[in-house]
Amino acid sequence: MKRLKVIFLLILVSAGVFAQQSLQIPPEIQNAYNAGTRSPDGKPGPLYWQNTADYDIKVLFDPATRLLKGKVEINYVNNSPDSLKQLWFKLYPNIYKKGVPIKAKINARDLGEGVKLTALTMGGKTVATTNMTMEGTNMYTNIAALPPGDSLKINITYSYILNKGSHVRTGQVDEGSYFIAYFFPRIAVYDDIDGWNKYPYTGDEEFYNDFCNFKAELTVPKDYVVWATGDLTNANQVFQETVAGRLKKAESEDHVIDVITPLDLANKKVTKGRSAHTWKYEAKNVTDFVFALSDHYVWKSSSLVVDSLSGRRTRVDAVYNPSHKDDYEEVIQFARQTVAAMSFKFPKWPFPYSHETIFDGLDQMEYPMMVNDNPVQKREDAITLTVHEIFHTMFPFYLGTNETKYGWMDEGWATMGEWLISPLIDTSMVNLYGVAQTGMTSGTKNDSPIITLTPELKGSGSFTSSYPKPGMGYLFVKDYLGDALFTKALHHYISQWQGKHPMPYDFFNSMNEGSGKNLNWFWQRWFFEEGVTDMAIAGVNRNEEGYAIQIQNKSDKPMPVHLTLEYADGSTTKIQETIGIWEKGDSLVTIQSIGVKNLKRVVLGGSHVPDKNSRDNTFNVKNEKVVLGN
């Protein structure tokens, strides 16, 4: 690399204006600062609180009819400073109820009666279900005031028919396989920003749940194996001895073990001989609980050390239909490598859970310790899909972000993780998920600022403002700070907010605090403002030192500058400048190359830098003393 220097041409504002910029704080966040629940430095406030619950779930599922009968006992704890006079519940399966407003594509034939409540008690007293008000996937009731610090025990008996078609993150996968999510009534989040989370689930926006403890007893017919969030506590009671032994071995082995093989399935040598089995799982301090089952899936498993200091291991599973062997056989390795990369490469944080199970389903959706991933035809797609969904372990599960309002707070990170980790699995890969679409649609009517609430996003912006744009924002800051400082800042954010509910301003301020830099000049322009993403080469001038290359930013969006300099002798030089080149608010900068060789052509463009118009990204040099125009 040749020695390079950068000349900043001040065009718009004086130095320091953007560096000292403050973000405009909305009233609900300012109220949280005033109340002491959150802090302007990005840390939880001294009076931060969040509610929680213990769930004891008992489910009987009949694959033949898809009828799920459940009983759930909830011990809800009010840690807020408020006396609660209502309880709000989430009945997510009601997106399949006739008449409920939805955004997802659901065939009318797959709609039914939704969740049926047959018994309800609160504090030991029977509550008539007619006293529960249903609003689509929300349900609420008035209660005697629940004071701060008190708890309330709720018992609900319910049932519903699991969907067979129109698979939206949950439902029947094939004859004998089911991925069952959102299957129990749960209490909605009550937080310091909005109070009750009253946003309905429409099948489009995702979720916001409290950190809770779960015990589940899942009863299914013989020959069915159940995988779930949390730890299986009765493996020896449900599995035949050989299978239970393999599973135990996998939890301490680096190499891949076939826990369930096609031969085991053919010989009915998987579960014990009873007509039904109850699978017992426990999970602590997680935001959700899901399970899946199949009577014909094979199971590959392995484990790896994720914490060098403690030696703690995480088990990784790939569970799939043997007919999908061509796609799924390598998934166990992709999953292992992802968990390892997350623990030691990016974000360099020990994988927080005891297992991660990739289940061969009909969607591309993440849950605590579980992934519902459809088979794909290309190996590259299997890698990126596996990485993306596992990366969600950190966001929104380890840090309980509000996906319903701020989808970018988890999808942007998963996208960045996909970009960084996929090439570690296959060095030939360059993953450009969403980059071209971001540039192409920037500045159009649906190109909303990233900070826009997720339910308000429209058209292409529903994708770009949730996935690639925030992912690029994180990536640009990483390049700007450098790996060490970025990791320090990110670890500061994670350590402050793990097991809690960070909001956007908590993230922005925490990264500022952790890095020791005021990044508001970038947060404001990239996350809060509209505008095209477009840069151009405005001119190339030869001078005594070499060449002065003028780069024009046609918007207010700070983006890295990646240049390839092609010389007359066939050699090339690459120049890369971070977003810091635009920190002062300039719209035109000059990058000086040093050297005496004749420059033939300059090309502007980077793999993860979106560009609305690439026609002005190439400049043919005439090698006169001064060259202007294109």
- First-residue to last-residue Cα separation: 26 Å
Oligomeric state? single chain
Largest sheet, described in full?
Answer: 8 strands, mixed
Share of residues in strands: 25-35%
Number of strands: 32
Strand order of the largest sheet: 6-5-9-3-2-15-19-17
Please give a structural write-up.
With 630 residues, the chain is α+β, with helices and mostly antiparallel strands. The protein is 23% helix and 30% strand. The chain has 15 helices and 32 strands. An eight-stranded mixed sheet has the order 6-5-9-3-2-15-19-17, with no helix packed on it. Strands 18-21-22-23-25-24 form a six-stranded mixed sheet, sandwiched between helices. Strands 1-30-27-26 form a four-stranded antiparallel sheet, with no helix packed on it.
Features:
630 residues, alpha+beta, 8-stranded mixed β-sheet, 6-stranded mixed β-sheet, 15 helices, 32 strands, 23% helix, disordered C terminus
Summarize the topology.
Layout: E1 4-7, H1 27-35, E2 52-62, E3 67-77, E4 84-90, E5 116-122, E6 125-126, E7 133-135, E8 138-146, E9 151-161, E10 171-174, E11 177-180, E12 186-187, E13 190-191, E14 195-196, E15 212-221, E16 225-228, E17 231-232, H2 235-238, H3 241-250, E18 257-260, H4 262-266, E19 276-286, E20 291-294, E21 298-305, E22 313-320, H5 325-328, H6 331-344, E23 355-360, E24 364-367, E25 370-373, H7 379-391, H8 393-398, H9 408-425, H10 435-441, H11 461-464, H12 468-481, H13 483-497, H14 504-515, H15 520-528, E26 535-542, E27 546-553, E28 561-567, E29 572-577, E30 588-594, E31 599-604, E32 618-620
Parallel strand pairs: 2-15, 22-23, 23-25
Antiparallel strand pairs: 1-30, 2-3, 3-9, 4-8, 4-12, 5-6, 5-9, 7-8, 10-11, 11-20, 13-14, 15-19, 16-20, 17-19, 18-21, 21-22, 24-25, 26-27, 27-30, 28-29, 28-31, 31-32
